[in-house]
Amino acid sequence: MRTNAFGVWIVNLIVLLFAANAYAKDYSDYKICRFNNESRFAYIISKLKDLAMIKQDYEFDIWAKSKSHEVMDVRIHNDILEQFPDCTIIIEDLDAAISETKSSTQEGPFSNSGFQDFFDSSKKPKDIFFNEYRDLDTIYTWLDLLQLSFPNLVTVEWTGQTFEGRDLKALHISTNNVEKNPDKKTIIITGGVHAREWISVSTVCYTIFQLLSRYGQSDTETKFLDHLDFLIIPVFNPDGYVYTWTHDRLWRKNRQQTYFPRCFGIDIDHSFDFQWTGSNNFPCSENYSGESPFEALEAESWDEYVNKVKSEYNIHGYLDFHSYAQEVLYPYGYSCDALPRDLENLLELSYGLSKAIRRKSGKNYHVLSSCEDRGSDLQPGLGSGSALDYMYHHRAYWAFQLKLRDTGNHGFLLPAKYIVPVGEEIYAAVQYFCEFILNPDL
Ligand SMILES: *[C@@H]1O[C@H](CO)[C@@H](O)[C@H](O)[C@H]1NC(C)=O
Ligand SMILES: *[C@@H]1O[C@H](CO)[C@@H](O)[C@H](O)[C@H]1NC(C)=O
Ligand SMILES: [Zn+2]
């Protein structure tokens, strides 16, 4: 009886282990195409839409359509590729590119390296954490351990719950220095709004790592943390992020039920209540905005947290990390006709961020308005309801969205060896941002 039960347990375990792989969405029938002729983009999209009507497998996904590079990258089914003669294939083997972002040894948080490896003997975090992308459990445990390592600096704060019941967590870094930061000047940094943009999550963690480990060691970081509070959310979309680890590496939205039974997920970055338009898009679409603003639970909880729980904090800066395209985007996203306040300084700061990155790594990040990136210059409503616009309009004096590396060789599937280089160049931009905000002349 005992042995039997144990046997059943083993079989179940094996089934589970295999299932984890069997469930993972297979992309072997797709390639990533790049198109260079801008005047043909509209035609290509409408043709793709027609083909997608014929057969569900022909669903396509626009990965990037950016003004700064004048290219459009699209995931297209192999069977219809020949109908697009001007396609240049940039990712031939999508499944191989996907597995390159996952470590071969990593199965769970504890299998690869125990948490003791992530901290040195004096409880300081170590950079080995950035050798690989980390799953949600590992990141959340890492945040909890940071709180233990820096009890006078770090608080993990619960900001709400996702549709699938996961915790939404923010890291509040504060020296509670009432003398040096009397009016609670605060910088907010978020990543992982879009589930598949793993590099945005690792880069937020890298920023946390740098700020904390340099405090008290370097004059710069000591000044930042004494004079500023930081509210940092590495994984804005936990359900989606977990889903990209277990089911579909290229998932983008959250995992909320929609009115359409078979389609899950709201695009969180179309859910914020500023210039929200419930564009006539379908719940199955990658950029589905929901039926009303703040329907995405993550956006709603965030609003509650920042605007109610943290209402006495003065948000001077907001940085939202995404990928990919290597761009510094300034508001607004919803319309190119809407002029942001203080445009001149906003531009100066944008170019400063881009220059800080270039000086660090030589990488070029284009500066442009978010509306151009989101296509709202071509079609109104495309860029509506973004976190950037909402935060800029309601809470943060300075606000940017940074689209991290690369420019398309790997797209959303940036291999783990780039985690540190991207972390370093973006951290240089974060330092510039803090210096700018602490500049007494502004
Ligand atoms: C781009 O497409 C337009 C419209 O199809 C065509 O007239 C033009 O020659 C193309 N340009 C290039 C550089 O291929
Ligand atoms: C969503 O994306 C599709 C293409 O994938 C596009 O046609 C549509 O206009 C987009 N809608 C919004 C609201 O961004
Ligand atoms: Zn994104």
TrEMBL record:
Q: Which GO terms describe its biological process?
A: proteolysis
Stored InterPro entries: CARBOXYPEPT_ZN_1, CARBOXYPEPT_ZN_2, Peptidase_M14
Q: Does the keyword section mention Magnesium?
A: no
Molecular function in Gene Ontology: metallocarboxypeptidase activity; zinc ion binding
**Predominant cellular place of this UniProt entry's protein:** secreted
Q: Where is the Peptidase M14 domain?
A: 132-437
Localization in the cell: Secreted
Mind listing the UniProt keywords for this protein, alphabetically?
Disulfide bond, Metal-binding, Secreted, Signal, Zinc
Q: Where is the signal peptide?
A: 1-24
Q: What is the name of the protein in this document?
A: Inactive metallocarboxypeptidase ECM14
Instruction: Please name the source species.
Output: Kluyveromyces dobzhanskii CBS 2104
